[in-house]
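Give me structure tokens for this 129-residue protein.
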Amino acid sequence: MKRTAVLSLCLAASLLSGCGWSNPIKRLGAHKIDIQQGNAVTSEMLAKLKPGMTPAQVRFVLGTPLVVDPFHDNRWDYVYQLEQGGKLKESRRVTVVFENDRLKGIEGDVTPAGQDKNTQEAPAGEAKP
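Here you go.
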């Protein structure tokens, strides 16, 4: 009785290993959570920006910037990254440029709603020729 149980167990194990069943130890790794870092700036948010807005108005629309460069106080950088399962799935960067404490333009990966990719470095609200 014991011999048939051991034999059938060995037979089942060999059949499963022949089916391409991968090593179960590799599948039992640590769970990696989704990590979102930075400011999620959407094209709808950028569409609300207009040239001449004050820094306070821009902060109200986009939120506090992730990076304020102390050497370039007229530039704010909004960076966003999403990692799922330990792998980078999404990465965005938007730079807001001010001149004389007024919004001059926006640059980056996300374009305002209603604009195409060729106008992404144009000042907010204006189309690039």
